[in-house]
Design a protein that fits this description.
Elements: E1 7-12, E2 15-21, E3 26-31, E4 36-37, H1 42-48, E5 54-57, E6 61-64, H2 68-73, H3 78-82, E7 89-94, E8 100-106, E9 111-114, H4 118-132, E10 137-141, E11 147-154, E12 157-162
Parallel strand pairs: 6-7, 8-10
Antiparallel strand pairs: 1-2, 2-3, 3-12, 4-5, 5-6, 7-8, 8-9, 10-11, 11-12
Amino acid sequence: MDTERRSVAFMSQSGPLRVTNTGDLLAMDFPARPPQPCEAPPALAEALGLAPKEVWASRDYMALYETEEQVRSLQPDFRRLRELDRLGVIVTAKGDKADFVSRFFAPKAGIDEDPVTGSSHCTLVPYWHERLGKDRLHALQVSARGGELFCMPRGQRVAIAGRAVLYMKGAVDVPT
């Protein structure tokens, strides 16, 4: 991002998204996707290898576990997850050193496990905001690569911020 520019907007499948430079964090503004409690399909617990305490759903299933360690230790059967009737599966629990932890599996979209997932936090933020009663949430996605996110509910939207590393810079010359 241009160091003089504080924000930029771009079009996405979910409509316009704005990225704002807030010092050492880049914050994205996403539409919220609050989950609703649902019956767990029997194949979900079998595919995850451990039955969740609760199951919720929005675009994806969200499986709630008791501990961070349970979330970290899951070894899902991706072939079986691909057969579920939702795009992906979010697994989450209250965190040991963060407000909550999560992982995101989307083999149906060709991604067994996504390292850091903005779209899953569109569901996680409204849930954990309601559960913990906090307006600022510290989240860890505990995939192998992992990521740290700072999230805020904003009604029908959520702000999701994190640190980024510049890996490429370029220029485009347009002929006149």
